[in-house]
Write a structure and sequence with these properties.
By secondary structure, this protein is of the alpha/beta class. It folds into two domains: 10-201 and 382-395, Glycogen Phosphorylase B (Rossmann fold), CATH 3.40.50; 213-378, Rossmann fold. The protein has 16 helices and 16 strands. The strands form three sheets. Strands 4-5-2-1-7-8-9-10 form an eight-stranded mixed sheet, sandwiched between helices. Helix 10 (239-252) crosses helix 15. The two termini are 26 Å apart. Mean pLDDT is 87; it is low at 1-11.
Length: 399
């Protein structure tokens, strides 16, 4: 009888699975390179999700970690289901689709009641598990089309990815839309009442103005004005435009010694450095490598005079919200929710992706710099607001 009661009680426990093409075992390392996007989404909101147990299913670069549960604390565990060699050329997305069938056994093993999905490729297999899920869409564009690598550029694979995404959306319990483009796409595929709408979010207790004098001195920037980029160095980020803007600023305002600061790494770094050398700006740009600490990132945001987004395509750049939360204005190309967030004494969205226009708007933005958050309507972009919406949905399925 006691055994039966314990068994019933165990079944009542609320177990949430989170799936993403991330190496969660390396998540907290200072040089973790998979910054932005999915990483920041899950990392920021995890502390606010209500569940008795949360299991993170992702990838690993170490074979001996595969299918082994690593307990982070009493409530949180990591369980890699896909192995990828560090030098492997096969994109994570293709590996995720090829081996996502392993989720069925893993979810059953951990008695998972519900899944929060951040990967179309993994989520494709969820229907066969019988576990309901909410799928979080991070981009409207074809993710493979804006990725690097020869395999990702194949039109056949891009068409297949679109089919997978459509299948995942249609079979989801609900799907999350973080901007208007995604919301409209979802409403065509599923009914409006199955769309959860919220913007990206930022933990405003973590990202806030921080004294960065020591960092400024260590980078030899005491007598310079600084434009900042934080994120993955990829072609889609429009990094040549970032360099062109710096060149234009140095022409417009030759008394301020404008410098560029690039925090991150990525597959496009060598090409970018070659471009910088061709523009004779090598001594005016600093590469820091990847940074995976909100304290240090807050120092970088606080150090900069203006944060730049030069991307060709974005959904809701987390860096935009983080920068504003630290009191640093943003000048951005017309991507994601930039138009919704900027323009009220905190920055600008450009009409054309031209260095001359962006440089002029940077100069106008300088007085917006503050030691307090300049994020308008901060509640709308808080982690508490987003997590409350998700928790209400999870509760409907006993999570």
């Amino acid at each position: 009888m006691l055994y039966l009661c314990l068994k019933l009680e165990f079944k009542k426990m609320r177990h949430l699975g989170i799936i993403a093409l991330l190496n969660f075992n390396e998540w907290d390392r200072p040089n973790f390179s998979e910054t932005g996007g999915v990483n920041s989404f899950i990392k920021n909101i995890l502390p606010f999700l209500k569940a008795d147990k949360i299991i993170l299913y992702g990838i690993t670069y170490e074979k001996n970690e595969l299918f082994k549960e690593k307990k982070v604390n009493d409530r949180l565990s990591i369980f890699p289901i896909v192995y990828k060699s560090r030098s492997g050329v096969v994109p994570n997305r293709i590996l995720g689709f090829a081996f996502g069938w392993r989720l069925k056994k893993a979810l059953k093993m951990h008695n998972v009641n519900f899944v929060y999905s951040h990967s179309e490729e993994f989520a494709f297999w969820l229907r066969r598990t019988g576990v309901n899920y909410i799928h979080h869409l991070h981009t409207y564009v074809n993710a493979l089309a804006v990725s690097s690598g020869r395999l990702a550029k194949l039109k056949f694979l891009q068409r297949q990815w679109e089919r997978i995404r459509k299948y995942v959306i249609i079979n989801s319990f609900k799907s999350v839309a973080i901007n208007d483009d995604i919301s409209h796409m979802l409403e065509v595929l599923i009914t409006k009442d199955r769309v959860i709408r919220f913007s990206n979010y930022v933990d405003q207790e973590k990202f806030k103005y921080t004294d960065s004098q020591k960092l400024r001195e260590s980078l030899n920037l005491e007598h310079s004005r600084v434009i900042l980029f934080i994120g993955r160095i990829a072609k889609v980020k429009g990094m040549e435009l970032f360099v062109d803007i710096l060149k234009e600023l140095r022409r417009l305002d030759d008394k301020s010694n404008w410098r560029g600061l690039i925090v991150g790494n990525g597959e496009y770094e060598i090409s970018l450095k070659n471009y910088i050398q061709a523009q004779q700006l090598t001594d005016n740009l600093i590469f820091t490598g990847s940074v995976n600490s909100f304290q240090i990132l807050s120092e970088y945001y606080s150090l900069a005079d203006v944060f730049l987004i030069t991307s060709f395509s974005e959904s809701v750049p987390l860096t935009l919200l983080e920068s504003l939360s630290c009191g640093t204005p943003v000048v951005s190309t017309n991507v994601g929710i930039a138009k919704n967030v900027l323009g009220f004494n905190n920055g600008f969205v450009v009409s054309k992706n031209e260095a001359s226009e962006m440089a002029k708007l940077i100069m106008i933005s300088l007085p917006f710099k503050s030691k307090q958050s300049i994020l308008n309507n901060p509640q709308q972009y808080s982690v508490q607001y987003a997590s409350n919406l998700l928790n209400k949905e999870f509760e409907k399925y006993g999570v």
